[in-house]
Amino acid sequence: MKIAVLIKTALDTSQLRVRDTVVVEETPLKISDIDRNAVEEAVKLKGQDKAYGVTVLKWGPLQRRIQEAENVLREALAMGLDEAYLVADEKLINASHAATAKAIAAVVKKVGADLVLAGEATVDNYTGQIPPRVAAELGWPVVTYVRELKVEGGKLVARRDLEDHVEVVEVPLPAVVSVTREINQPRIPTLLAIRAAMKKPINKLTLADLGISVEPKVSAAYKPLLMQRKKVVIKDGTPEEKAEKLIQYLKQEGVI
Amino acid sequence: MKTLVVYPSKELLYVASTLGGEVVALVFNEGEAEAIKGKAHRVVVANVDARLPDAVAEAAAKVAQGVDVVLLPSTKNGKTVGGLLAQRIGAELIVDATSLRVEGGALKAERYVFGNKAVATVEVPLPAVATVPPGRFQGEPPAVQTSVEKLQLDTAPKTRIVSVEEKARGAVKLEEAEIIVSVGRGFKKKEDLQMAFELAKVLGGQVGCSRPIAADLKWLPEEHWVGLSGKKVKPKLYLAVGISGQPQHIAGILESRIIAAINNDPSAPIFQNADYGVVEDLYKIVPILINKISKLKGQ
Questions:
Q1: Domain locations in chain A?
Q2: CDD domains in the record, alphabetically (chain A) (predicted)?
Q3: Do B258 and A253 make contact, defined as CB atoms within 8 angstroms?
Q4: Contacts A–B by Cβ distance under 8 A
Q5: Contact B161 A14 (CB under 8 A)
Q6: Which end of chain B is more exposed for a tag (fewer CB within 10 A), N or C?
Q7: pLDDT value of residue B171
Q8: What is d(CA B204, CA B95) in angstroms, rounded to the nearest whole number?
Q9: CB-based contact (8 Å) between A155 and chain B?
Q10: Distance CA A245, CA A209 (A)
Q11: Which tens digits make up the pLDDT trace of B39-51?
Q12: Which candidate from A135, A161, A239 shows the least CB-CB separation from B288?
């Protein structure tokens, strides 16, 4: 089964660069954690066929991000993907979600796939909207929040993890599936696999290569939330004294 | 101005009414239509399975013609429908909007981003789609005259629901809890969690947990899980016991009024995110707290 895996080069939220606003351009990128689960699932399911990664660069500046994205994609290749497609185009930096989905779908149409796998959401924006958008663009069914996936005779059987219940659904291929962290335990690549990944192709594409154009960008400003916690730390005294102190503080706050 | 509400609730209809103009609601059976009569100008009853996002998005796309804003609940199916619909109508989707207003032909919204460490102010052209987290907006939609109409779709959905399994559910409603005692990897075995339940009981609170306790160790059902992919809570007191404070966990507790933490590691990140921290072995201090607080409450 030929599989496309969506890999987001997400902002590393543990290393946000903050001045008056969040300085997106200076914040490092990393693989969006849940995408590792999507890669793992693809490597398990692909069989004799090919599994490839698709990344669209959303965060600028373009030139520096290309290098960072290649490092992220090497990681996914080391986990077992066969090749990767990196769409890097100035017009896609801070682009609308509609434009990002259109670019991803264009790669999938160009390369072909029976299944598109993605993480349930990306760790920076956490909206989970790209998988359904890509499905709409391709005209394929979408199954979101999947924690167990099986392929049986050209059909997918998936367990969806919803708020109050688990729903088992069946869809024909081709389809788009978003997975949760619970679906598997992503492998840690061996040194040998990491070396082998250096030889696997990362194909760079622009919008012109894909033959598409995109709509205007979206305006967004990111203001850091000031954490105004009191950070009082009680570390001296016996456990008895510490407990007493904590209770006094909580009583003063009127919460107990 | 015209707003479409899919999966309407009182809360969503209220938000729609604050945007002004006509409110249209899309529902999937007569019972739901009856329940919101008087709260929307038009109610459209579509003959599709509400549990199938593809089918719901199909129906919503039909009704969305001429609509400026589409509102959905921030449920997993709500967000899925939102993505499908937004792509079909060439609109942006703002997920988990914490504020919404329409101004100068644009939808302006705020939402938490980057692991809830920043607030994004987003401005997108109309038509636009947004999902609203439960309990965020509170108000009553004004009483209006309602007209009800039917929408017949004859497309066969590709997705088939084979079965539905209820998740194990207790009486846990963390989103509504005033006090939460939350447990993490500092607990060495499952039986020891009893201490936390005891402490929660004397405090009159509920028990929450970090990801490993629910997802990896499965010591507690997922309804206890607090964090970015678990529950987002806003108690007056959040007491984290033996929780190191990974960013994904912190993201779920930001709206707590007071955060207190107990951890034996003075460098645990939870202390940077707490109002009151105690560096101590939880096995020593929790029994003392149970004892002292039960005496306090007994007075």
A1: 3-210
A2: ETF_beta
A3: yes
A4: 240
A5: no
A6: C
A7: 67
A8: 33
A9: no
A10: 66
A11: 999 999 999 999 9
A12: A239
So what's the pLDDT on residue A228? 72
CATH topology assigned to domain A3-210: Rossmann fold (3.40.50)
Q: For residue B65, what are the contacts with CB-CB under 8 A and spacing of at least 6?
A: none
Alpha carbon distance B126, B4 (integer Å): 13
A23 touches chain B (CB under 8 A): no
How many angstroms from the chain centroid is the CA of residue A193? 22
Question: What interface predicted TM-score (ipTM) does this complex get?
Answer: 0.91
Asked whether the beta carbons of residue B123 and residue A219 sit closer than 8 angstroms, the reply is: yes
pLDDT digits (tens, 9 = 90+) for B76-128: 999 999 999 999 999 999 999 999 999 999 999 999 888 777 889 999 999 99
Domains, chain B, with CATH or none: 2-151 (3.40.50.620), 174-298 (3.40.50.1220)
